[in-house]
Design a protein that fits this description.
The chain is about 25% helix and about 15% strand. The chain has about 120 residues and is an alpha+beta fold.
Length: about 120
Amino acid sequence: PAEQCTLRQLSEMYQNLFVGLGVPVDVVKRYAKRQLSLSGRKHAHLMGVCDPTGKLPEGTIFVTGYTRTDNDQRIHMSDCYRQLFVTRSPCLDPTDGKIVPLVQHKPSSMTDTEWQWLRDK
């Protein structure tokens, strides 16, 4: 595969974070092994920016782009997930990770144009 498609091992830092948050060690190890194939991968590294519209509810995130369902249909991230686990990197403490709600519907304060602009990025 192309360089950008090369799957890397789930780092020890993230494995330790999951264990520190209470995920059983055997579950973390199974996932670390399973995620080495695209079909077993359920995580991604994302870079974030502040909300350019200033209209997303505080304490939420919006993720652009698409993912695939179990039956291989392409679906927008906001139509697929209700919440995501996010952490800083490097993560130094279990409190560096948290589960954050994903904005799935256009906030009432946002125009249709702004919402479409976010979804098209």
